[in-house]
């Protein structure tokens, strides 16, 4: 168990800068997630830590020890692959024992530790089975047991759940988190699934074309995204371009089209006259019933009701405001049939973002 | 994207070994052939006179025309038979399909000149069927000549079209066909506008393989051409001819053969490069519903093709157990042919087994690491290695044999007359096959298995031994056996290179054909068939998994 320091790591494939000088600090025992769309460099970064992708520039440290110069087999990392990579020519027990045998652990010790690891992933007694007799979820558990049994410095997981079906995926999420907490191991986790990232991680680094857009706790990533890209990639949001018209402390008013929207700048640099982007999450917006007054201090927008989508617990619906922008909203109660509606927005939940370059 | 990136010396070492081996035993001999074609007979000056002489001679021009037109016709008829056959096997409910599939590839491992020989025994001037037809009053022209060669090629080479086409039909994304039907296309229109265009590259790739094989083959035209000129045979005659040897003309003919095959290979490469759209298939392509009548017709067609291809071999085996008095067949069961065959010596059989085993070992030991490097290390180096390692395919056995004699009969390394020169010729010729088989096997093994092992603390070389070798071993054994059997029935370079004590079963057959002693010929053929069918039958289960990608 150790901390990971990634210091200005870079790697170019042809003309593509896959990892563009990234620096990150993963704390000892932390569950750290690299989140981003495909092609953003998250897997390349993980493979740099594992030793399967040499660095063009920069360095990587486990604790105080530099490891990017070591070959992959000397780094003592446990890696879990997207497609399990369970050796098909070995029984489950031999798969899990593989790394211990490479480390010349005594036979009795190996047996004991293999069984303990299998128990930990709830596969106690499966050691004598062949991989082809197991389901996808069980194979993934074998892969996890094989990676943790060697007591690695860090556990690396490369989209480990993307080959599982939806229900199993949710189950394995808490399973992996439980194992991580029990062992107190440092985890570097790669995924493109925001729900996975939000529910499992201590901290998330949202990546985009080779660099980190924002690195923070899940709550901050969702509620205080640093850029329009993060706001859009994590969760659903409405992004509106506007200009700051007034600012008193953190209270700003932004003119979007002809409407003024009040927001809490949360310390963001948004001077009067500056162009900004507002992020309005569906939960920051609320329909105001006709005749009812909006909550004090909230801005209002008027529009016409568009398509509604019934999702069971929630209803998602669209409202087209005066300048033609379509807003996504959600509510517990399906909106009633009025064509003209008024929306109120909660200034404390509106996020002020810099204009995207 | 997920190729195994590493900067160690492994691929470089493999490339050096492969280049050294092929440079000395392939490029250097071929260069010798080329040089002999552009110098004066006394070896003193550069000249193009040899080319003028050959291309100005009606006889050799006829040989070039014969070779090309025979190869083209063989290719055409193989596609004509192979495509419907492949379609039936891949998409229709045919009776006895598992057996049919098992028998489909068999003609490729059986010696094709045995099939040609069987055609002569049955349809030649003194053939069994010819005689029978004559007796009942039907005039029958003999099988000799262009038509016989084309028939023999079609019967033995059509699997080159069938195998890739079946694979293409099976890997087709069904939803594409469903989309065509959904958009209003009838089943016939769908086949014509969607299905066939998608499998066309595979069909043409197979057809070109037949074309190249038809150009290079020595045994079939040797049996069936009589005095009609064929490039591969004329080159041989010019080189070892009893009346007057003429290495310059042999060199020119060899270069002409190489130019034709290289051109065909380049066309094939271009086609395969465009073949990117046969992906995205999920699960097995479903069979097409047909009426019982169509089903019966399709079954009859497929079984007829298989029978036509295999009956000649069966006939040879049968005949080998009948008695001959001189060249005349007596309908009487006897082992006398085998007694006659082994009377003098078991040595040729021993030679065939020994040389095939050793050459298959060399080809496998060099070919498998090359195949591994080609798949796992993508770089400019591996692109060059790919071209070097597959180039022996473009040179006919006769030409390679001639080149080896030219290169190693004097000078720093003398090999002519030894067993080594045969082993070298065989392993050079079969190296492309070994490389391709190994790549096919490595392709099927996920690279993350190796990465998993390395990340668990096992160094790369040990990982190769502990993870890759066990996973590859089945496929390697299968490829080894296929290499072994194709070497056992190799004739074209053997006839140029063998010496008295190192003659093989194929040489015995060759001599029996020349001396018109069918007893020895048929019994030698039977032993050869046993040498190829038995090992293949033993490893059939291993081969099933890979045969599509290997052949």
Q: How would you characterize this protein structure?
A:
- The complex is a heterodimer of chains A (357) and B (551).
- Chain A is of the alpha+beta class and 357 residues long.
- Chain A folds into 2 domains: 4-231, Rossmann fold (3-Layer(aba) Sandwich), CATH 3.40.50; 236-354, OB fold (Dihydrolipoamide Acetyltransferase, E2P) (Beta Barrel), CATH 2.40.50.100.
- Chain A has helices spanning 42-50, 92-102, 107-120, 136-148, 166-183, 194-200, 218-223, 228-233; strands at 4-13, 16-26, 31-35, 57-62, 65-66, 77-80, 154-158, 186-191, 203-208, 211-216, 238-248, 251-256, 259-264, 275-280, 285-288, 299-310, 315-321, 326-331, 340-345, 351-354.
- In chain A, helix 2 (92-102) packs across helix 3, helix 2 (92-102) runs parallel beside helix 4 (136-148) and helix 3 (107-120) packs across helix 4 (136-148).
- Chain A is elongated, with a radius of gyration of 25 Å.
- Chain B has 551 residues and is mainly α.
- Chain B has 27 helices and 2 strands.
- The two termini of chain B are 27 Å apart.
- The model of chain B is unreliable at 1-6 and 278-282 (pLDDT under 50).
- At the A-B interface, strand 6, helix 2 and helix 4 of A face helix 21 and helix 22 of B.
């Amino acid at each position: 168990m150790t901390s990971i320091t990634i210091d200005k790591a870079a790697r170019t494939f042809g003309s593509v800068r896959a990892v563009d000088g990234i620096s990150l600090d993963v704390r000892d025992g932390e569950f750290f997630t690299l989140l981003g769309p495909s092609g953003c460099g998250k897997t390349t970064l993980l493979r740099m830590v594992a030793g399967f992708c040499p660095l063009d520039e920069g360095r990587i440290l486990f604790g105080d020890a530099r490891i990017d110069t070591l070959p992959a087999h000397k780094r003592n990392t446990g890696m879990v692959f997207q497609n399990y990579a369970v050796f098909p020519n070995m029984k489950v027990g031999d798969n899990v024992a593989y790394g211990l045998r490479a480390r010349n652990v005594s036979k009795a010790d190996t047996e004991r530790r293999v069984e303990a690891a299998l128990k930990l992933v709830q596969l106690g007694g499966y050691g004598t089975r062949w991989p082809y007799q197991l389901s996808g979820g069980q194979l993934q558990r074998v892969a996890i047991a094989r990676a943790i049994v060697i007591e690695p410095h860090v556990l690396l997981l490369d989209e480990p759940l993307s080959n599982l079906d939806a229900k199993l995926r949710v189950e394995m999420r808490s399973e992996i988190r439980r194992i991580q907490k029990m062992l107190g191991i440092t985890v570097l986790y790669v995924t493109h699934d925001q729900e996975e990232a939000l529910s499992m991680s201590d901290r998330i680094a949202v990546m985009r074309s080779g660099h980190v857009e924002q690195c923070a706790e899940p709550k901050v990533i969702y509620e205080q995204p640093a850029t329009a890209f993060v706001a859009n990639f994590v969760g659903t949001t409405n992004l509106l371009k506007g200009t700051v018209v007034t600012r008193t402390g953190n209270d700003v008013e932004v003119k979007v089209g002809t409407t003024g929207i009040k927001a809490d700048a949360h310390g963001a640099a948004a001077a009067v006259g500056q162009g900004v982007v507002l992020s309005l999450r569906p939960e920051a917006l609320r329909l105001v019933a006709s005749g009812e007054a909006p909550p004090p201090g909230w801005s209002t927008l008027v529009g016409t009701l568009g398509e509604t989508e019934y999702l069971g617990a929630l209803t998602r619906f669209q409202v087209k405001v005066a300048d033609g922008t379509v807003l996504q909203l959600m509510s517990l109660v399906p909106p009633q049939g009025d064509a003209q509606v008024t929306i109120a927005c909660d200034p404390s939940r509106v996020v002020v973002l810099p204009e995207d370059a | 994207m997920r190729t195994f990136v590493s900067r160690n010396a492994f691929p470089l070492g493999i490339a050096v070994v492969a280049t050294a081996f092929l440079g000395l035993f392939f490029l250097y001999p071929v260069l010798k052939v080329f040089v002999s074609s552009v110098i004066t007979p006394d070896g003193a000056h550069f000249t193009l006179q040899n080319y003028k002489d050959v291309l100005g001679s009606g006889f050799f021009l006829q040989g070039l025309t014969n070779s090309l037109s025979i190869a083209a016709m063989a290719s055409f008829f193989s596609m004509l038979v192979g495509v419907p056959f492949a379609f039936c096997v891949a998409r229709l409910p045919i009776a006895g399909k598992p057996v049919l599939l098992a028998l489909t590839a068999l003609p490729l491992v059986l010696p094709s000149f045995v099939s040609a020989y069987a055609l002569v025994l049955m349809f030649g001037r003194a053939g069994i069927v010819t005689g029978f037809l004559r007796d009942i009053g039907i005039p029958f022209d003999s099988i000799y000549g262009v038509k016989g060669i084309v028939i023999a090629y079609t019967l033995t080479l059509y699997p080159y079209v069938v195998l890739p086409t079946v694979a293409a039909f099976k890997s087709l994304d069904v939803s594409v066909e469903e989309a065509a039907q959904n958009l209003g296309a009838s089943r016939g229109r769908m086949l014509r506008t969607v299905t066939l265009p998608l499998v066309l590259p595979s069909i043409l790739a197979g057809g070109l393989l037949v074309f190249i094989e038809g150009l290079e083959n020595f045994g079939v035209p040797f049996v069936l051409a009589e005095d009609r000129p064929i490039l591969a045979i004329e080159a041989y005659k010019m080189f070892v001819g009893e009346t007057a040897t003429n290495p310059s003309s042999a060199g020119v003919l060899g270069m002409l053969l190489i130019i034709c095959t290289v051109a065909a290979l380049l066309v094939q490469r271009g086609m395969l490069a465009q073949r990117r759209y046969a992906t995205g298939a999920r699960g097995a392509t479903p069979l097409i519903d047909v009426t019982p009548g169509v089903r019966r017709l399709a079954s009859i067609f497929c079984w007829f093709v298989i029978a036509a291809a295999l009956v000649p071999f069966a006939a040879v085996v049968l005949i080998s157990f009948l008695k001959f008095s001189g060249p005349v067949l007596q309908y009487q069961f006897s082992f006398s042919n085998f007694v006659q065959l082994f009377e003098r010596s078991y040595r040729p059989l021993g030679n065939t087994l020994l040389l095939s085993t050793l050459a298959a070992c060399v080809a496998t030991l060099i070919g498998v690491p090359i195949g591994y490097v080609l798949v796992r290390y993508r770089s400019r180096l591996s692109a060059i290695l790919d071209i070097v390692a597959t180039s022996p395919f473009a040179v006919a056995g006769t030409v390679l044999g001639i080149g080896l004699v030219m290169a190693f009969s004097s000078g720093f390394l003398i090999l002519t007359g030894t067993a080594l020169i045969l082993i070298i010729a065989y392993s050079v010729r079969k190296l492309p096959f070994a490389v391709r088989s190994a790549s096919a096997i490595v392709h099927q093994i996920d690279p993350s298995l190796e990465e998993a092992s390395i990340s668990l603390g096992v160094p790369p070389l040990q990982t190769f031994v502990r993870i890759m070798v066990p996973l590859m071993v089945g496929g390697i054994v299968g490829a080894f056996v296929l290499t072994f059997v194709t070497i056992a029935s190799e004739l074209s370079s053997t006839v140029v290179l063998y010496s008295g004590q190192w003659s093989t079963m194929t040489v015995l057959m060759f001599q029996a054909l020349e001396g018109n002693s069918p007893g020895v010929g048929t019994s030698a053929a039977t032993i050869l068939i046993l040498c190829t069918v038995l090992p293949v039958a033993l490893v059939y289960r291993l081969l099933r998994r890979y045969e599509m990608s290997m052949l």
